[in-house]
Structure formats: structure tokens, C-alpha cells
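Re: Re: C-alpha cell formats

Sure, here are both.
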Amino acid sequence: MSKFLLNIIISSLAVVICAYLLPGIYLGGFVDAFLVALSIAFLNQFVKPLLVILTIPATILTLGLFLLVINAVIIELADWIIRDGFEVDSFLWALFFSLLLTVVTSVLDVLSGNDRKGRSKGRSER
């Protein structure tokens, strides 16, 4: 299985868990979670870098905390892209969802042995 597909499946499972835990997030099923994970991956790859560059002054002034707002905007954009099957009640729920999604995805990555950064797990390289 390709690394990208494994990352999307893990992210989909994390989306399901987060939607179950947060009352302000509505998810139709696992197919919708898969679509949400794909849209978030796309948005993180192409839209987020542009948003980060455009908001450098705000990010500096807030000592990096504005990046949380950018993550919530990405979730809101995913909500807009996936019209049926995924709904976020408010910006605050998008913020909570993005924070919880990061934690749950990290835990699932550790449990699955998946290493998203591509570092080697063998001997240390010198």
C-alpha cells in the first residue's frame, strides 16, 4: 500500500474519531471521512502555504498562534468543499476539530508505526 494511501486512511479514521467526540461536527460515514481527509490533504498541500505567507505579520505578532486560525480555516474550507456528509457548526468547532485531529492523527500514527516525516527507523545515520 502506498504511503499516501496509508496516511489518508489513518487521517480518515482520525476524522471519524474526532467527529464522534465533538458535538459540533457532523459526519455521514467513513466514505465522507475519506473525502474529508483527501480535501484536508489537498488544502494543506496547496492552500495552506499561501495562507501562511499572506499572514506572516499576524503570525509573528501572535508568536505563531495565528497558525491555529489558519488550521481552522482549512477545516472550514473542507466543510465548504464536502457539502453533504460533513458539517462544522462554527469556527470555534473547526478550531477544536483541528486541534483534536492533530492529536488523534499523531496517536494513530504512533500506534500504526507510520512515520509521516520519512525518517528512518533503523540505525541512526551519522
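Second one below.
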Amino acid sequence: MQHDIPLEKFGAQGPAMAEAVEACVHCGFCLPTCPTYRVLGEEMDSPRGRIVLMKEVLEGNLTMAEASVHVDRCLGCLACVTACPSGVQYGELLAPFRALNQTNKLELKNLTKILISSTLPHPRRFRLAASLGRFGKPFKTLLPKPMQAMLELLPNALPSTYELPEFVPAVGKKRARVALLAGCAQQVLAPEINRATLEVLSKNGVEVEIPKSQGCCGAILMHTGQQSEARALARKNLNVFPEDVDAIITNAAGCGSGIHEYGLLFAGEPEEIRASALAARVKDVSVFLAELGLVTPLKLENPLKVAYHDACHLAHAQGVRVQPRSLLSSIENLTLLELTDAEICCGSAGTYNIEQPEIARELGMRKARAVIESGAQAISSGNIGCLTQLKTHLERLGHHLPVLHTIEILRAAMRESSA
């Protein structure tokens, strides 16, 4: 495909954007994997439709406002990348385009956007906001829909704060040394995930550092087009994480995916090489444990049927599908179940369930019904956003199943096998 995209407008990110546009041959393999196309049935709400729209805007044939209504509906789940036979790197077009769109409408920045960017990346602020938000629930119908969705996703009570240590020694023979990315919203909504991660790593001979001065990885802002703000957050971490570790561990798919995009985020910046080097050292905890091998036995006291849900930023963005399933399948007394339409997003997608609540709710309900139909007694996933979305919609359907991070199930199996 020929293009007349003014690449200079996008600096070092321009060539990647043009390559993504050119690679698309409009074959349609992406259509059945696209959540918004499945819900809305509109060509312009499919990946190939959005590529056409973005191309027309970049070449000056279409206004940003005309395209944004459809581009803003994209979850950024990257299922289209997995399905594409031409290797279109859709994410390398979407993120810079959203950054351009954000620049063009900064004056229209609404209260919801401000609340997201000023609270979610900062655990203490988010905890305060979430605590106050509970008092607003009875009045949510008086608020704009995005803020209603934000309140609906908040739990009725927050778990106790878990103060992360700066260092956890390996139990027994030391087999590896890693650093842990602590995450942001996860520390507030589900601090037990980090606790379980440290326990499983430690009992498998892994020494863990948790840099105290680390901050948000910037993924939340990166995926909503706020690239300069994302760079500012990410830049702080470049000097924080040690280089002499076997890996930097993440236990949130969105964070891992975001850091793996640091090369694109810092393209043309002085920190580009260092950012890419940091990204190369990042591994999801399931990948690291599967590669290292577990030394502790895994057994549940009672039989349990567990459905595994692929977080999009783990399965599609990072290509991690086998490792979590392999770890879960190694647990005695655990039966692993697959979900119908497993490749389709649950509707969480970072802040999507706040910004596009109607579509997110439909996708969340579809995924919750798939879990119920599977006959699962519990559900496992590798991302805090997915866990929150699944729990919300399962409860909406009257099903109060345990919704757990994969690492929490591994910890339970370790504890019960040694009891």
C-alpha cells in the first residue's frame, strides 16, 4: 500500500507507523478476533477499518474527530496481531496515533481522564480515592457514565495494605536473583498477589529485590495516548532496577506489556538504548517460573476445576499462553478448563471499562457467562484488570466464584502439599 504519511510529524515512531499501515492487506482474518467488531458488527470498528481511518487522518484526508469515534472504541487487546497472517504490528500504529489524538484534544481533557492519570499510577492516592469512592456509590446514577463505571468496579471494602519488603531471601539453595515490579492499582486492590509472588519465588530458591524508589511503569497512560506523561513515569524506573539480576519480574500483564513497549515509547529519545535493555530483562512471573522449574511439590487438598482466562496483554502482546497453563496443570487435584472464545478480551483493557462502559460491560458479561458454562469452581488469570472485571460480572450474574491470580493458586498448592 502506498502512503503519503508525513513521518516527520511522529519523529522516530513514524517508520513503525507507516510499516503497520503498509503491511495490512485487508484480508479480514482480524475480524472474528476483534471484540468490538463482534459486539458492534461495524467495519470501521474492526482493526482493518481503523487502519484505513488512521491512514486517512495521517495523510490529511480525514479529520481526527471523524476517526476518533471508532479508534477510541479499540481496546488495544492486540488479538488482531495474533490472528494477522501478514504480521501487521497494529499496536505500533495505535499507540502513537492515540498520542497525536491526545495532543489535539488536551483542552477537552475531562474529569474522568484527570482522575485516572492522577490516581491509578500512585497507590497511596488511588487507595484514598477508592476509599472515598465507596461513599459515592449510592449516588452513582447522578454521575456521567464513565464515573458510574469507575464506582461499579470498586470493591465494597479494600484489603489491608501490604508493606512490601525491600529484599526477600531465597529459601534453601539460591537458584536465581530477580527484581520485582510492584505495580500500582494492584497494590491497592489485590496486595495478596505480590505477597504470593514473593512466597512462591522465595520457596523455589529465588532471591528477590523490591526497589523501594520504583514507581508506575507508565502502561496505563501509554495505552491511553498520554505518551509524554508515560515517559516521565517510565524514566524514573530506568535508574532504579538493577542490571545484575536474572530478570525483572512482573505479575500484571498490562505492566509487562507496557514495559516491553519501552523501545517504541523512547524511540529517538536519549534513553532509547537503556529503555530497550530494561524491557529485554522483563519476564512475567509465569514465564520465569516455567523456565526455572519448580522445586516445591504442588497439590491441592481437594479436587478443584479451574478455568484459565488469557489476559490479552499476556497472550497477544507477549505471546504467553503455554506457561501459566503448564504451571496450573502440574498441580495435583487441579483440573484445568478452557473457556469458549478464550482469545476474546474480557473488556477490562486498562481503563477501557471506564472510558467505554457499555461495550466493556457487554464483553464482561459474555466472558462471565463463558466461565459459568465451563463448570469452573474457580478462575485464574494473570492481570489485575481482568480479575476485577471477571469478579464484577460474575457477581452481577449471581456467581461468587474465587477469582485468583495464577500465582495465588500456585501458593495455595505449595502450602497444602506441605501441610
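The longest strand covers residues 299-308. The radius of gyration is 21 Å.
- S.
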